[in-house]
Design goal:
With 302 residues, this protein is an alpha/beta fold. The chain has one domain: UDP-N-acetylmuramoyl-L-alanine:D-glutamate ligase (3-Layer(aba) Sandwich). It contains eleven helices and 13 strands. The strands form two sheets. The protein has a nine-stranded mixed beta sheet, with helices on both faces. A four-stranded mixed beta sheet has the order 3-2-6-7. Strand 12 and strand 13 form a beta hairpin. The longest helix has 16 residues. The radius of gyration is 18 Å and the shape is globular.
């Protein structure tokens, strides 16, 4: 079952204590799509400038990501530059150039409007709502957001949240959006806004899933080499939604398994800069790490 994703495509420049890269492939739609493509078909809607390299187009096509919805406009592609210290959970933004992304208005191709799984990546909540008006009758809608929209467009964001099934945000955004310091209370408040489930991304500390009847925690996979956490959250979302779409599930009983697959994909993402780890990732590796995840917290009751 195919997924529709609407988000950003970017050229990133990133520096960490372990190296740096310039103008590499990035953006929320790219990380999500690449991750989800291991589980099902993905249809991407985004915008790039006329400077966007052909090699990146070839990469996306090589992952069987449908890019008929990738708009190419006159101007430069969205660029982001950031630096991470040894505390890899937080990026320090050095420069942001929205370029063609600033005037991006998602236009959903006719053949995408029947997609039953939709992911609204981190864009203006008004644009997220506009996308939902263009799709017909999705079985499951998930979305992401950030502190900027929480602060600048809280009413518009709340209207979006009322229309989605799953919200995926980080720990600080959860507290800010709910105006509540206690994470459990914050989660319960956000669920009262309308979504069926809330997933809280906690970086190297794992992820928390909340529904009205379920609380589930997944640790982060213990890695020896972490080069670049950029895109880890979108890779998580791609694994989560990709698993659900690939198994044709929407019921919350399978959400914990989806969280683990999301965590698996995020763990691969951070092992190299940009999408480099995903270029040669085999599905057998995903299955092996999924089994490792299960063993991380399993114990016999004696």
């Amino acid at each position: 079952m195919s997924i529709l994703v609407v988000g950003s495509v970017a050229l990133d420049s990133v520096e960490t204590p372990f190296g740096k890269v310039r103008d590499v492939l990035g953006g929320s739609a790219v990380y999500f799509s690449t991750s989800a493509s291991y589980f099902t078909d993905v249809n991407m809607v985004a915008v790039v400038g006329n400077d966007f390299p052909q090699e990146h187009i070839d990469f996306l096509k090589g992952k069987n990501i449908d890019i008929k919805g990738l708009q190419r406009e006159k101007g430069d592609t969205f660029r982001w530059e950031g630096r991470y210290g040894f505390e890899l959970n937080e990026a320090h933004t050095l420069d942001t150039q929205l370029n063609v992304f600033e005037s991006f208005t998602p236009e959903i191709p006719q053949e995408y409007k029947d997609c039953e799984y939709v992911f609204l990546a981190n864009i203006d909540p008004e644009l997220q709502l506009d996308v939902l008006k263009q799709v017909k009758n999705p079985r499951l809608v998930a979305c992401d957001t950030m502190n900027y929209w929480i602060e600048k467009k809280p009413k518009e964001l709340q209207r979006t949240i009322e229309s989605v099934d799953i919200l995926i945000i980080n720990e600080a955004e959860t507290r800010e959006f709910a105006c509540e310091s206690n994470l459990v209370k914050a989660a319960r408040r956000i669920l009262s806004f309308g979504p069926r489930a809330l997933i809280i991304k906690r970086g190297e500390y794992g992820a928390l899933l909340f529904t009205d009847s379920l609380t589930f925690f997944a640790p982060a996979y213990p890695l020896e080499d972490i080069f670049d956490p950029t895109g880890a959250g979108d890779s998580f979302a791609g694994g989560f939604i990709g698993y659900l779409a690939g198994t044709l599930r929407v019921d919350e009983n399978c959400f914990p398994q989806a969280v683990i697959f999301g965590s698996v994909m995020a763990s691969f993402n951070v092992e190299k800069f940009s999408l480099e780890r995903m270029r040669d990732l085999a599905y057998a590796e995903i299955e092996d790490r999924y089994r490792d995840f299960k063993n991380l917290t399993y114990f016999e009751d004696i």
